[in-house]
Structures are given as structure tokens and as C-alpha cells.
Input
Amino acid sequence: MKVHQSIGSTPEESRYTPVAIALHWLLGLAILGMFAVGVFMADLPFSPLRLKLYNWHKWAGVTFLALSVLRLVWRLTHRPPALPASIEQAMPSWQLRAYHATHYLMYALFFAVPLIGWAYSSAAGFPIVWFGQIPLPDLVAPDKALAEMIKPLHELSAFALVGLACVHIAAALKHHWIDRDGLLSRMLPGRR
Output
């Protein structure tokens, strides 16, 4: 395991592993894509297209949950590189706290959003059949009143996750274009 980067450390020591980089970008794109589809499909009238999109959204949500488990396991077994000392020392304390809080909240929402969506689908009486092939167990018994209570929680948590992702993106771009401190390069693919 690597510890805080010293002044003489190599760029490879401050980079994330290729698996962590791949999961980061895959989940990032999935968040934005699933959110866009979710917003689009919510306003569609009842139709075959709406039913198809709801199924795809649920399949993507379960896949996202599985990838989030994989990402968490990877992170727990492969310690991420520490912030380079020069960057950590240059950041005001509130930015450092926001950096950590944003990451922890995003990880929590990686699990909360799809699990709440799964519970909503179960309560609404629409079981999930992953990719139309693998029936998944209901998380709660069908209950229309419960479904109506859960639905806004799924929407709010999804908006919170996208909001945090936007903050994360804005901070990364600030470090890249304004601070020019190389922080973003730690997560860019193909740059060893």
C-alpha cells in the first residue's frame, strides 16, 4: 500500500490504478446517462417506449449497483493514492473538507439511489427482471401507498447524486485549468 506521496515520488505513485480509473469513468458516464433517461422517461405518456425505457433504466440501475459494489471492494482492497502534499497544502481547509465530504456522499448515493429505485419498483408491483432474463427479488412487498412515499426519495437522491457529480466535475476542472496542479491527470486514462 502506498502512503502519502513524498516530494521525490514518481507520477505513477500518485495515479489511480487502471481498474479504479475505468470504474470511475464508467460510473460517471452511467450517472449522467441514467439521470438523463430518468428525467426524459418520467414525462412520457404511457406507451411502449416508456415501458421499454423504464425497463432499461431499472436494468442500468441494477448494473450500476453491481459496479458500485465492485468499485467499493476495489477501493477497500487497493488504497487510492494520497493527495500530493503540494496540492493538499495549497488547498484551503474548507476545500479539503469539501473534497472528502463529496466523495463520501457520492459513495453513499451510489448505493442509495439504485436501492431506493429498486424498493420503489418493488412497492409499485413491478418486479425487476434484469436484462429480461434474471428475476430479482422484491426489496419490499407491493404497496401502492409505500411506492408513492418512496418515489420522491428516488428522485431527490438522484438529483443529489447528479448535483454532487457536477460539483466534483467543476472542482476537477478548476484544478486542471485554473490551479494547473495535475490533480485531474491522476484519473485520466492512458497517461502513465
Notes: The CA atoms of residues 106 and 162 lie 9 Å apart. Residues 1-11 have pLDDT under 50 and may be disordered. DSSP finds five helices and two strands in the chain. The two ends are 19 Å apart (CA to CA).
